[in-house]
Structure formats: structure tokens, C-alpha cells
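Minutes, project check-in

Agenda point 3 was the complex the collaborators sent over. CS summarized: two entities, 349 residues total, and the question is how they sit relative to each other. Sequences were read into the notes so everyone works from the same version.
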Amino acid sequence: MDCKRAKALIDEVSGHPVEEAGALEEHLGSCEGCARESKELHEMRAALKSALRYEAPAGFSSRVMEKVRLEKKPFREPGLFRWLWSMPAHLKVAEAAAAVLVVAIGVYSAGFLTDSLQDSANEQAEAGYIEIASLEEIETVPPGSLGDVYLSVKENGNEQ
Amino acid sequence: MDERDSDLYLTDKSINGDEAAFEALILKYQDKVFNICRYMLGNRDAEDAAQDTFIKAYRNLGSFTPSPGFSAWIARIAVNTCIDYRRRPFHLSLSAATPEGEEYTREHASKTPGPESSLESKRAGLAVSEAIGKLPEKLRAVVVLNEIEGFSYEEVSAALDIPVGTVKSRLSRAREELRKLLALAREQI
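CS then shared the predicted structure for the full assembly.
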């Protein structure tokens, strides 16, 4: 075991993993630096265990409750996030996957809808072109019509 | 019902207007919150800050999320409240000093010693507590939460909003500082 691993293990609060305990002991037996560090840390933890823990003064909770009664009722945020947080991780993943699937299906089927719209729009457009084209081919003033007579009268008048 | 479920149950009931449920939460966490405030601020503002912590918690109950747990959630409010108190002008702290204080503050070493060693251990405990009080604020918060309140690295990380790596490095710096402070205290005796 090297010093880096030994130091990491010394630093673990929750005790050493059992399988590495022997190797650590061995390392501490041979490495003066790590042995000193381990000893100092144990001493420090022991000292910190004796540190005072201050308790709330008597009547603390009733003094807080007096102030709480003056407060407005707490407001609950819209339930979605709270509900999401409270779910186990695998459910969160499942939920996200379901949401993605629903959106994907939506997009896919919306594609079909717009495709058919596109088709009918194209057909309509084509029909329109034909109409316009055929209109151009038709003479604006068919022979023998009222307009033709009017035009020829007007042209004759102009000539005179 | 485990700890987390019971806290969730109590917060839900509190939101629905059950005062007794919120008082139960106070009673459960008041020592933890007071201890954090006492270490962060000293005796003068500790009770005020602890009270404010619970008022803020009450106002924000709606945004409480079960992860990382009520303990880390309220510790975070407590630490932030203490930082605000530290920033406010000195005269406000003076006028807000509560008449009760030291005499009502029950204190005891976190590990109950046998009667024959109790005086000795109390003296040692006092020296350690004074040394913790001399640490810079950031290091002190980590030591109080991890070493005294028994928070895991993850809980400290959530309570202080810093990465786990930072928690570890601050802890080792704090221990180094404490070693020096305790050695200094021993020399003075």
C-alpha cells in the first residue's frame, strides 16, 4: 500500500474497509509519516468528542411557537417537483423515459399529419397553376361577344 | 417509519396547519440548531439566530424536499442565518441580547464521562470548544457539522452548498488549525 491510499483510509470517518485493514496496519508499521498522521488524527477525534454540545435553552420551542403563530400559513410549492424529489431514483428515470417516449410519439405522428397537409396543399397549388395557365390561353374577348363588338366599334371610331 | 419518513410526515402536517407537528419538529431539532448557532455566533446571538432559523424554516416548509433530509436542510438555514447575523452591525447584536443566556444554557460533553473524570473532561471539552470558536468561520462550520453533529460528508456538502472534496480539504485544514490552537492553549495553562 502506498502513502496516498493509506492517507485516504486514515481520513475515512466510517472506519477502514475490512479487506484493506491488514494492509493499512502493515503500512503504518513501516511508514513513520503515515503512522504519525494516523495517531494525530485519532487524538484529534478523541479531543473533538469531548467538545461541548450546547442544548437549546429551556422554553425555546414555546418562544418559537409564539412567533410562528404570528406567521402566515406556509405555502406549498406546486406539487410536481416535490413529488419528483420524493420518488426513488429508478422511478425518476422511468418517468423521464416515459416523457421522452410520449414526446417522440407526438413528434412522429405530427409528422404524418403535416405530410398529408403538405400533399393536399401541393395538389391545390397544382390545380391553381392549371387554372391560371388555361385562363391565359383563353382569349380575353371571344369573337362575336359584346366586348368584341364594342372593341371593333371603338377601333373603327379611332380610325376615323 | 424511519427518520426521513417521520420528518416528511411532520412537515406535511405542519403545512396543513398542524401546529403541534411543527412544535414536534422544533423539539426534535432545537438542540442541533442551537448548537450550530452557538458555535457560529457565540452566546450573544445564538438563541435569536436559532429562533430565526425555525421561523425561516416554517416560512419555507413548502420548498422542503426530502433529499438530503431535514437535518441538512435546517442546518443550511441555520448556517446562513448565522452568516447574516455576523454581517449585521454590532449595535443590533447588543440591543438584541436576551436576558436569559448562560444560566439557561445547558451544556454537556457529547460523550458522557464517568463521574470521577467529569470535571477533568469538562475542562478538556471547554478547551476544545474554545479552540473551535477561534477557527475561521468556514472551517468552523465544517467541524461543527461533521465532528460534533455527526453529519456525513454528503450532508455537510448539502448543508454548506460546497463539493464533498471541499468538505474534506476544509476538515483537514481545520484539524491542523485545531492542533495548533490546542497546543497553544496547553502552553498557556
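Noted in discussion: The domain at 1-94 of chain B is CATH 1.10.1740.10 (Rna Polymerase Sigma Factor; Chain: A).
Follow-up: revisit at the next meeting once the mutant set is ready.
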